[in-house]
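Please, structure for the following, as tokens.
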Amino acid sequence: MAQQLAYVIITPYTLHKSRTGGIIARLITRTGLELVAARMFGPSNELVQKYSEAIISANDPQDRHIQELIRDYILQNLAPDPKTQRPRRVMVLLFRGEEAVRKVRSVIGNISADRRGGETIRDTYGDLILDEKGGVRYFEPAVLAAPNNEEAEIKLKLWAKYSDTDGGLVTRTLAYAPGEVPQRTLVLIKPDNFRFATGRPGNVIDFLSRTGLYIIAIKVHRMSVTQAMDFYGPVKEVLRTKLKDSVAARAKAVLEKDFHFKIPAAEEKQLGEILGPISGDNQFDNIVRFMSGKSESECEPAQINAPGSEKCIALIYEGVEAIRKIRDVLGPTDPSKAPPGSIRREFGSNIMVNAAHASDSDESAMREMKIVNVPENIFKTTIEEAYGKL
């Protein structure tokens, strides 16, 4: 069966309530689809108007009244704030696979005032509350998605058309109190979270939500070998030097066991000087391979700048003391030393396979964000690959 693209729009209210991670976890685990792209938007009035006009559909299983509620909700809640003209944050996810639209819609669910459980995303996170006369007192759909493949294509092309002007790094959506100085930091949800269709990527985002920070950019990223080498370049020399003593001790133990003689301290130090840099280079190659799928020596020249085989999610968070807050929740590099309740304690395996990366300073954040280029429009490229140039 042919591969389909399906979208899920996470509403401003859902983002504000930090329900994003739980929703992403459900979508990945319950649909079995591949998350292929994601993009933040600050939708303009023009985009909101055109999207709202495409909502009413005879093919939608929800009745006309519910469709009208959704249309009116989009006009009121996705458009810029009428008082401040400040755009609102919206996240759009793209999933690909067989029957993608149907699978996404079944996990999201329809909207009903009679819901009794939490089977679907809208059961859990959405609300439709009626008054005693049957009028709508409160309505929040939580997420938006297309009812069928044909309408998914129409709406995806619409969002793709505005993805450069209205999407990417959404910088005008947040307001701060006088004296507050916002900071930005990069988070990478590493490839170990994508080996299987698990809820771990969403769970990591859910952990990060307790920082109270705001996601202002998101990208599904496949790091090239060149990017991985640049990104982790600062640790290469550290690995070459800091491993000398441990490598020397291990080499000494092996040689003494095999050759049955003692190695003096001076010669042990020489072993470290010789083998330490070699071991460090090997560790660096392992990091590059883990993040991109290959090391530099395993690449043909034409492959070194191509997107790698390993997937991660790159996010930019913004807020007061963003770098410290993210790293507090992340925990130390070594998961065995991370405190309970931290991401690396919960999801990490070892120093390299430790669930996520976060910038450790303003300078690192700027350097790393430039390498990963989170605002890059993979979202539009993915849609054009499916449907042709817009």
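The longest strand covers residues 90-98. The chain has a mean pLDDT of 93.
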